[in-house]
Amino acid sequence: LTGPVSGRPKSATFRTTDVVGLDTMVKVASNTYAACTTDEARDIFKIPDYVQQMMDRKWLGDKTGQGFFKKEKDAAGNRTILSLNLQTMEYQPQTKPQFATIGAARQVDDLKERLKVLHAGKDKAGDFYRAITYRVNQYVSNRIPEIADELYRIDDAMRAGFGWELGPFEAWDALGVQATVAAMEAAGHAPAAWVKTMLNNGCESFYTIEDGIRKYYDITAGKYLPVPGGEAFIILDNYHSAKPVFQNAGATLHDIGDGILNLEFHTKMNVIGAEILQAVNSSIEIAEKDFRGLVIGNDAANFSAGANIAMMLMLAVEQEFDELDMAIRMFQQSVARVRFSSIPVAVAPHGLTLGGGCEMTMHADVAVAAAETYIGLVEVGAGLLPAGGGTKELALRASDKYFKGDIELPTLQEMSLNIAMAKVATSAREAFELGLLREGIDKEVINGSRLIATAKAAVLQLAEEGYTQPKERKDIKVLGRTALGSFYTGIASMRMAGYISEYDELVAKKVAYVISGGDLSSPTEVSEQYLLDLEREGFLSLLGERKTLERMQHILKTGKPLRN
């Protein structure tokens, strides 16, 4: 209830304390209690008896090996995490109480809607959420103007400093200020007087959007004022009240000004299915007619977790290989549309950018990546190979690195290992090193809040410089048997040494075959379409393998790869 389900960090309350250290928490709480003599919530900082007992026993968290949680090994030698029973002060196996409210909330992707589910809960979880939320709302309203003249500063601090997805005033807006104030008063947690004044002035929320500009309620002015610095950011939420240029079940296209469109995904984990591919094609068609360029990006936690493998698994089980072939062709044609459109296209990856999300990024005129981007071609974990242009693109990028007189095999091998080992870059900087982003072309953005604005600026720059529509490459040098022999030998050696399974070997050889350009007798120049055809052929053949279907099913069920 104090973790991701309510928009807070995964470590929530007690795990965070173990990481920080109980002694640190006690010192901070004690100093706050001593200093804040007139604060109405001062008693919260009194040290509870159970915390003092933990201090006396040196159960300080990770630094002493135990705190609210303790890691041990069970009789079978498996690692287990015990939790502290605050009544008995003994460690016991963790139990996870089942609350209908939490179960219902977890089914809702949109955080603002999820908070409404928590707030409406009729069980103990709902009671807890309301009690905590009402106290927080009361407290933050009382701190204006004591610690900040403007309410947005408190929201900024809680998001940037404590990892909240929504600041307290933003979360309050999501629940509805008017209705929540009445409930708070009934519960004995009335907000500060200025909140009532705001409502009486006809301002029904702490924030509002006017003409795409985000504004906050200023208690001194008694009206909405623009949030300073907003001109340097593009927050897509600010466009949601406007009529979209295009929309379907998977994505929405907004006009973000200066002749630039933005395509925003909104499927679960932004998984790429038929709706998103249709939206990509429609967006480019619209942009080519009436606009200067397109950004593909969103403000969600992750850019995209990849293609819709659930749909592919269903078709593969039913042996609908003609439909699978059509689906793969559609994906390939869609990313090719990104590459070969007559207007510049930027893709703005951040967070998880895996599989198909990575492939879409690789086909942009310019990728503008957040520093915290986890990007990679991870299809082998599902018993597949990248078939949305990812394998082709790495072969192309390897070819561009070949220089006369150089030994070419190590460069291609490096690219092949990215796929065969399902390497995921843990940052944009590492993505450049792996060849998933291009030095001198793609960009890294440290402040993720500036991602869409930076991508828009990159598209405008390309348009103003006189954008030239790219043509299909037909000069990609592939090494054929020259590479295959070496790759197959290396893969077999890893299998014999026990590093990979027999099925890993089969998948790795498929990857090697495609990225080498197939069974060609000597190095040859080929087209992008030639490599895309090899990708599709290899992908379909793997979908016909029982062990691939087992891997796909296991990932969908557990979220983890199966090494069968």
Helices, strands, pairings?
Blueprint: H1 14-20, H2 22-35, H3 49-56, E1 69-73, E2 79-85, E3 90-93, H4 100-106, H5 111-119, H6 124-142, H7 151-162, H8 168-175, H9 177-186, H10 193-200, E4 207-210, E5 213-218, E6 223-226, E7 246-247, E8 251-255, E9 260-265, H11 274-290, E10 293-296, H12 309-317, H13 321-340, E11 345-347, E12 351-354, H14 356-362, E13 366-370, E14 373-376, H15 390-401, H16 409-420, E15 424-425, H17 428-434, E16 443-445, H18 451-464, E17 476-478, H19 481-496, H20 502-515, E18 524-526, H21 528-543, H22 546-558
Parallel strand pairs: 9-10, 10-11, 11-13, 12-14, 13-16
Antiparallel strand pairs: 1-2, 2-3, 4-5, 5-6, 7-8, 8-9, 14-15, 17-18
Give short descriptive properties of this protein.
564 residues; single chain; alpha/beta; globular; 2 domains; 18 strands; 2-enoyl-CoA Hydratase, Chain A, domain 1; 3-stranded antiparallel beta sheet; 7-stranded mixed beta sheet
Structure overview:
This protein is an alpha/beta fold and 564 residues long. The chain folds into two domains: 4-192, Orthogonal Bundle (N-(1-d-carboxylethyl)-l-norvaline Dehydrogenase, domain 2), CATH 1.10.1040; 238-556, Alpha-Beta Complex (2-enoyl-CoA Hydratase, Chain A, domain 1). It has helices at 14-20, 22-35, 49-56, 100-106, 111-119, 124-142, 151-162, 168-175, 177-186, 193-200, 274-290, 309-317, 321-340, 356-362, 390-401, 409-420, 428-434, 451-464, 481-496, 502-515, 528-543, 546-558; strands at residues 69-73, 79-85, 90-93, 207-210, 213-218, 223-226, 246-247, 251-255, 260-265, 293-296, 345-347, 351-354, 366-370, 373-376, 424-425, 443-445, 476-478, 524-526. A seven-stranded mixed β-sheet has the order 7-8-9-10-11-13-16, sandwiched between helices. It has a three-stranded antiparallel β-sheet with strand order 1-2-3. It is globular.
